[in-house]
Amino acid sequence: MRHTAPSLRALARPHAVAVSRAPLPTSAAALVSARALTTSGPAQAVKDFASAFLHGSEEAKEEMRVQHSKLVGRHKYVHEFQKHKVLPQHVEQYKEKIEGYYRGIHESSEFDARLTGSWEIVVGEVDSFSHIWEYDGLAGFERTKTAIRESRGHLQFFNQEILPLLDRRTSQLCSEFKFFPVVDPQEKGGIYELRTYDLKPGSLLEWEHEWRVGLEARIAAGHTPIGAWYAGIGRLHQVHMIWHYESLEARRDRRAQSWEQDAWSNTVSKRTVQLMCLPAIQTTRLLTSMQSQILKPLPYSPLR
Fold first, then answer.
1. Contact, 197 vs 238, CB < 8 A?
2. DSSP string of 192-215?
3. Domain positions in the chain
4. Domain 50-297, what architecture?
5. What is the rounded distance in angstroms from the CA atom of residue 12 to the CA atom of residue 230?
6. pLDDT tens digit string along 83-95?
7. How far apart are CA 301 and CA 118, in angstroms?
8. Mean pLDDT, residues 219-246 taken together
């Protein structure tokens, strides 16, 4: 059944509303671990800026960075993307341990951090888990990391109980796009898709402008947006988008419907080579690579 989807503007989170720190869903195993952790412009303008950044003077490059911050980012919050590659034989043990550890941080007033979501990657880099944390700016991120290092139990628990289960891990700090803030916690069931785009250096503003034009069409076709971020620290020139679907079949159907929307097809391939009937690349010409992964929310995830 088709549902009328909200516009991008209607999805924006009000700046004045305080973010709730609701308790995470609880499992008996997690309670045991948690108790152990208790402690005290216009298109041409965009292209001109991009050109200045790539080829202009140092002054032009600095202006570009300032404009980038004003035009693209929403800097009230900083989101940390944590990725854990778990040793295959320890996946179930990891799920139990990380729930208790993250619950202790999310629900504690000691830490200026809120868990946005925790997912297991089921299609893509399997035996891996993606976690997104929200902080009140870079200062909140730094305060939280310092508090965890100085706390009694949290750092020790991670090093002794979780770290031996991991093959590797990464951390990346990202900012929300102004036009695509992350949704509030909700329980929807189904699956999530994490799409990651590696952009050519200096192309973020142009990509954002072109991509935003087609998003209304995707929403009109029944896609449910969760959030969109661009990297600021860590691996750079990277954009993440998360979408929610009832199932893989629903995802396939929604994507097919999107291509029936001129606004979407024109965003990805703006001009048609008439003789060959082949699309000339638009947003894709700004990319070096892209990746799609299917995520299953963990039971305690605020987005699930």
1. yes
2. EEEEEEEEPTT-HHHHHHHHHHHH
3. 50-297
4. 2-Layer Sandwich (3.30)
5. 17
6. 999 999 999 999 9
7. 5
8. 91
